[in-house]
Design a protein that fits this description.
single chain; 5-stranded parallel beta sheet; globular; alpha/beta
Length: 169
């Protein structure tokens, strides 16, 4: 099974994907790492997946068209994977399940401040969460999307995801 965990920055994608991957014994692939790597298995991916990078805030802009093509090529011969990243909602990737993590404004703001995001970036991400950006984009690109509210414990969010994975398609 191939699973996507996406959502606004600060909703818990990386932590949940890591714990879910461990629990299911699936490999976890982060979108940024995939885009930056020059090698993945036997295939070599060029840095042309990256449009631009800013060292000041450690951000990259992923060329979604090239990324989509490369990740779908990569996934053809792979299974038991969890892909995680906030841009994954903007692409059509051949996966079995997609989960959009959500959280309340107050929780998200606290998490982003803890991560030392600047105020403009915090407001941008709060706005995206409030307008359901990731959910709307995911619904445009995938047949079925499951939203998971990640505001209690990590284990409860992971249990919700596992329950949905076990449900028939």
């Amino acid at each position: 099974m191939k699973i996507i965990i996406t959502g606004t920055p600060g909703t818990g994608k990386t932590v949940i994907a890591g714990k879910l991957g461990k629990k299911l014994e699936y490999k976890v692939i982060n979108e940024k790492d995939f885009a930056l790597k020059t090698k993945s298995g036997k295939q070599t991916f060029s840095k042309s997946l990256i449009k631009k990078s800013s060292q000041a805030n450690k951000e990259i802009e992923i060329d979604t068209k090239k990324f989509e093509k490369k990740i779908n090529e990569f996934l053809k011969e792979k299974d038991n994977l969890v892909l995680e990243g906030h841009v994954l909602c903007e692409m059509k990737i051949n996966v079995d399940k997609i989960f959009v993590l959500r959280t309340k404004r107050e929780i998200l703001e606290k998490r982003l401040k803890k991560k030392k995001y600047n105020e403009v970036k915090i407001q941008d991400n709060l706005f995206c969460e409030e307008i359901d950006y990731c959910s709307k984009k995911a619904l445009k690109n995938y047949k079925k999307v499951t939203e998971i509210m990640n505001e209690k414990t990590l284990n409860s969010s992971i249990q919700k995801i596992i329950k949905k994975i076990k449900e028939k398609k």
